[in-house]
Design goal:
This protein is α+β, with helices and mostly antiparallel strands. It contains 8 helices and 11 strands. It is about 45% helix and about 20% strand. The strands form 3 sheets. The chain has a 4-stranded antiparallel beta sheet with strand order 1-8-3-6.
Length: about 240
């Protein structure tokens, strides 16, 4: 049996033997369900009783202001865990939405806790994943607070390139990129007009090729230089430090 993308992702954080990977495969394989674009897995203020694992498609964590403005605070990619420990809090302080048609595994709290108690190696991998998620969030704060518009978009594209490489979803220097310009604007704190202008500039400079929901980075090193990208915050060798 091939490993699920969740098992692949967690094994990259912490060495998991075949039995542990099979336990993950059983956990996420018994309840995979499709969700349509634009639907919420949960909304701000919901009380959570389940954990969601993203098997296919793209999603986003977001916060809504009282006047309806939205800030996307992180992008969720295939293999990501949607806040596995969020049920420890009273209510969700953010929402998670599907940016594309997605397939998720919804795992009840009881099932999750049973696996976490019986298989400490899986729990370690999930905690490392949670720490890396927090590290990415800190970098997004720097993006919004200190980087220029060109640097923001360049940094985001570099991050997505590295994250998708980790689960084998980059081919010929490119990857599926279903994010709309509105969603890019919501993720980088820019207007749609400004986002469009910067994307056109990046195309002219040969930094990216973007068409038909596919993003190609012809020269990753050049794009990384634009924003002084340092992939260490993604902790690619997390398990080697332990």
């Amino acid at each position: 049996m091939n490993d699920s993308i969740i098992a692949v992702k967690l094994s990259a954080h912490w060495p998991l033997d075949r039995q542990n990977r099979e336990a993950i495969n059983r956990l996420v394989g018994r309840s995979a369900i499709p969700r349509r674009t634009g639907t919420d897995l949960f909304a701000q203020g919901d009380r959570l009783t389940s954990i969601f694992f993203l098997l296919e498609g793209w999603g986003a964590r977001y916060k809504m202001l009282a006047d309806g403005r939205r800030q996307i605070v992180s992008l969720l990619l295939p293999g990501d865990l949607c806040d596995p420990f969020c049920f420890l809090l009273h209510r969700a302080d953010h929402g998670v939405a599907a940016l594309t048609p997605i397939k998720v595994a919804e795992v009840g709290r009881g099932q999750f806790e049973e696996v976490a108690l019986e298989r400490p190696e899986i729990t370690k991998a999930m905690w490392i994943n949670a720490l890396i998620t927090a590290s990415i969030q800190r970098e997004w704060c720097v993006n919004l607070g200190r980087r220029t518009a060109l640097e923001r978009l360049s940094h985001l594209f570099c991050e997505l390139y590295h994250r998708l490489c980790k689960v084998g979803m980059v081919t010929d220097a490119g990857f599926h990129f279903p994010v709309t310009q509105l969603e890019l604007a919501d993720a980088t704190g820019l207007t749609m007009v400004h986002t469009n202008r910067i994307l056109q500039e990046m195309r002219r400079k040969g930094l990216i090729e973007l068409q038909r929901r596919h993003l190609i980075v012809p020269d990753l090193a050049a794009l990384e230089r634009i924003c002084a990208f340092d992939p260490s915050y993604l902790h690619p060798a997390a398990q080697e430090a332990l």
